[in-house]
Q: What sequence folds into this?
């Protein structure tokens, strides 16, 4: 049996001439009929570029500069745009990360299917309705969604619709480019299950592109690991899991662990056998350095947003939550999206006001602060944002960004302020400091940007840092570094940390205590290791189950 | 012409950014890059050339014009001849000379009124977009008032009220009637930018609202403001010509608008002197077109997808 897809010596460049970047570098691999293959790599590894090249969707500035892509013995590169359109029927289909946003909001789901049927004419007009219903049935949606509009469906449902649309042309090869990355953790798990089931039933060949080795190992039979434009490892999943040969694969694997395990070790984190008694207290020196450590007290707080549309019920984002964040403590707030964890962060930082209950920081009533009084709170309570690409003004240098809070909160000026800025850069591990101070955000990598964001949060020498998903936008290999930095700061500076995340593994390694939120309510709280090892609430168990775990297949 | 800047946020783009870490660009380089972006757009290039020619003519009017603007005593209503390329007016003035001198007024009014209404639009639009509550409602009411009243009638009423003020009066009238639209556009963009993380982060850095608006938000909408300026300048040139054509300006000043006014008064078309109406009309249209064309290129600065000739 000949291979379905045969890629030989493929190279893709961005740009031309001296300034060009080799995104894909002499890559060769084959896909057999009916195989489920994963393609793993971090951002910038060229995996999406490769995916686009395979589907013939490469757009300038990307150019295929060498090699061949044979689908059933036909070279894709030699096909014209018109032939390529024909080819899509019974050929290659692609599901994109943002596929769920590719649906036209003013047309019903049915119209989307009809468009494809009409363009390709492969389904008789009389069978349109039944075929569309059959397709949405395959992705486990009821036929009634056909008359809905994309805006009425959830993200997971829309992604399922886009998978069904891709299926409508009976492709031999389906390319999934990060199909679940933009979805909520729990939904992610369900959509992945559907994809795996589908592949078994329909027997198409699947290429799953993902940054998450856990997801790929869980679903694919064979895994290609991509690093800096080259495929560094090509082996069956089990072999990758048990005896990876390439150092890069080993590094990726080392960042996965089961948060339920007795001992959790990640690079940069030795397990500290957390128990309530042995939780690391801030070092004595930092205790004495601070005169008045204050706790954040959240007392029966609720936040109700008005109804989004007339006739709909109000939205209760946070429902009667109480907790205390003691000085030097680290607390994880976990939950799926919509659980109210980010709203809680906004209430604590006075970005929003509680509908009932109170938030106090020392003797400061946070809920009643007026705009002009924010400085009093932000001197001590600072925030690390989720998206380092959005949290820095693209037009300001790192030095300007860091100088402002230094000037505003510490009153230092001129050279003193500059010295403090350089000191901060050194603290977050960005050296040479002078060089980094002069850079603009776009000249920094994601991890470096997040360090700048952390440095800015430290500028006022705060007592509390609220970190809202600080690593979810970063590559696996960068996450450990940022988390270790937060951890060090807590221990050395005696800063208390409120760590908001959906990622239970990172919560396990950086926090002492945990609170699990569901629908705005606290469903479980306690010592992090204990809660994760012996979860009592069903929601916590579901969250734990949703974590992609390379080793799970052995468990099952 | 209003564009929303689309942040390059896909992983692929980020990968490229990270791959090519360049030294920090100097301000001069940024200006050059912006200029070359505008210049790379074919339409904008035509616009820049036309605008450049008009500006050169305005500056060098004393050298270029064969006669003075108000110099009369030539044959009245003469047809085109070697001495008078575009003929003469009913008052015996040289049309070509008037056209050349008149360009000064149109360009001056366009640039000054465009600049002033942009400044007002920026001040009002940005603070309006940033404040919430009662203050925003008050500004909303005032801006809506200016938007809802038809422009030309309002201009005529104000111009009649301030009659006899000359060019200064015309600039005031154009600015009063022209700022509201820009303020509305800039307010929308401010509202969209104010919810960005880096603005929230600035609040956490202890920044005062004034500084957040003008140091964090304003620089991120430069291209929109520049676009607004060219739009406002176009509107100002057309409004100035319109008001003067209606005889509401100082009719003794020579501008393209007053040329049209006098041409109409002397029934130039009936006497077969089409150049009297046609030449200033064409100049007004060309100048307004050139500014609009430049705006196509300005759009490309903030939105790379609109850059032409780089796709496919």
A:
């Amino acid at each position: 049996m000949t291979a379905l897809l045969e890629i030989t010596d493929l190279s893709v460049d961005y740009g031309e001439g001296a300034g060009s970047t080799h995104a894909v570098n002499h890559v060769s691999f084959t896909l057999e009929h009916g195989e489920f293959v994963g393609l793993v790599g971090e951002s910038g590894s060229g995996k999406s570029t490769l995916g686009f090249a395979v589907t013939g969707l490469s757009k300038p500035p990307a150019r295929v500069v060498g090699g061949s892509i044979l689908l059933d013995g036909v070279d894709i590169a030699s096909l014209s745009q018109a032939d390529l359109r024909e080819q899509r029927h019974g050929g290659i289909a692609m599901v994109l990360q943002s596929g769920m946003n590719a649906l036209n909001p003013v047309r019903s789901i049915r119209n989307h299917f009809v468009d494809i049927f009409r363009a390709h004419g492969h389904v008789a007009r009389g069978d349109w309705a039944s075929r569309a219903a059959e397709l949405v049935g395959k992705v486990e949606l009821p036929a009634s969604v056909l008359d809905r509009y994309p805006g009425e469906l959830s993200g997971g449902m829309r992604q399922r619709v886009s998978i069904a649309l891709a299926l409508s042309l009976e492709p031999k090869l389906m390319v999934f480019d990060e199909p679940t990355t933009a979805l909520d953790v729990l939904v992610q798990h369900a959509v992945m299950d559907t994809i795996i089931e589908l592949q078994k039933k329909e027997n198409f060949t699947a290429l799953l592109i993902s940054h998450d080795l856990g997801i790929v190992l869980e679903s694919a039979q064979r895994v290609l690991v991509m690093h800096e434009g080259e495929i560094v490892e090509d082996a069956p999943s089990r072999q990758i899991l048990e005896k990876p040969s390439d150092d890069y694969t080993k590094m990726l694997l080392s960042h996965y662990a089961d948060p339920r395990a007795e001992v959790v070790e990640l690079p940069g984190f030795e397990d500290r056998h957390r128990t309530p008694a042995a939780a690391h207290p801030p070092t004595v020196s930092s205790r004495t350095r601070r005169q008045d450590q204050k706790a954040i007290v959240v007392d029966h707080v609720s936040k109700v947003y008005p109804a989004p549309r007339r006739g709909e019920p109000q939205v209760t984002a946070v429902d009667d939550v109480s907790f205390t964040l003691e000085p030097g403590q680290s607390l994880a707030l976990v939950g799926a999206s919509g659980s109210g964890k980010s709203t809680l962060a906004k209430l604590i930082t006075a970005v929003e006001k509680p509908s009932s209950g109170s938030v106090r920081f020392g003797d400061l009533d946070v809920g009643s602060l007026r705009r002009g009084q924010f400085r009093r709170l932000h001197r001590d309570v600072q925030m690390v944002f989720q998206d380092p690409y959005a949290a820095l003004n693209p037009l300001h240098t790192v030095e300007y960004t860091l100088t402002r809070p230094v000037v505003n909160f510490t009153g230092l000026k001129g050279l003193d302020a500059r010295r403090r800025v350089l000191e901060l850069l050194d603290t977050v591990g960005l050296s040479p400091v002078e060089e980094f101070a002069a850079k603009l955000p776009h000249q920094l990598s994601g991890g470096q940007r997040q360090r700048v964001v952390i440095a800015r949060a430290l500028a006022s020498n705060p007592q509390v840092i609220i970190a809202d998903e600080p690593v979810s936008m970063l590559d696996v290999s960068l996450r450990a570094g940022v988390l270790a930095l937060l951890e060090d700061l807590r221990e050395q500076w005696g800063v208390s940390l409120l760590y908001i995340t959906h990622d239970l593994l990172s919560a396990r390694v950086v926090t002492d205590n945990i609170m699990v939120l569901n629908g705005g309510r606290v469903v479980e709280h306690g010592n992090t290791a204990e809660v994760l090892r012996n979860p009592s609430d069903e929601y916590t168990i579901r969250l734990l189950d949703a974590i992609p775990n390379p080793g799970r297949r052995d468990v099952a | 012409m209003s564009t929303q800047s689309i942040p390059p946020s896909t992983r692929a783009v980020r990968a490229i950014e990270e791959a090519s870490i360049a030294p920090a660009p100097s301000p001069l380089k940024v200006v050059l890059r912006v200029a070359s972006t505008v210049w790379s757009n074919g339409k904008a290039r035509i616009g820049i050339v036309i605008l450049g020619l008009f500006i050169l003519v305005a500056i060098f009017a004393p050298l270029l014009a064969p006669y003075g603007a108000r110099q009369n005593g030539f044959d009245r209503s003469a047809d085109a001849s070697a001495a008078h390329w575009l003929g003469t007016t009913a008052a015996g003035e040289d049309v070509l000379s008037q056209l050349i001198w008149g360009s000064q007024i149109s360009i001056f009014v366009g640039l000054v009124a465009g600049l002033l209404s942009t400044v007002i639009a920026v001040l009002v639009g940005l603070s309006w977009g940033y404040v919430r509550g009662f203050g925003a409602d008050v500004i909303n009411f005032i801006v809506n008032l200016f938007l809802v009243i038809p422009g030309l009638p309002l201009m005529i009423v104000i111009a009649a009220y301030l009659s006899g003020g000359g060019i200064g009066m015309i600039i005031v009238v154009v600015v009063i009637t022209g700022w509201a639209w820009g303020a509305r556009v800039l307010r929308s963009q401010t509202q969209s930018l104010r919810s960005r993380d880096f603005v929230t982060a600035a609040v956490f850095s202890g920044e005062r609202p004034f500084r957040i608006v003008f140091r964090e938000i304003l620089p991120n909408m430069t291209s929109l403001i520049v676009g607004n300026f060219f739009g406002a300048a176009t509107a100002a040139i057309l409004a100035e010509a319109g008001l003067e054509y209606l005889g509401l300006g100082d009719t003794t000043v020579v501008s393209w608008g007053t040329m049209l006014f006098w041409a109409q008064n002397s029934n130039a078309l009936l006497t077969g002197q089409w150049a009297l109406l046609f030449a200033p009309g064409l100049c007004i249209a060309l100048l307004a077109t050139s500014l609009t064309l430049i705006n196509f290129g300005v759009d490309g600065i903030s939105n790379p997808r609109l850059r032409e000739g780089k796709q496919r």
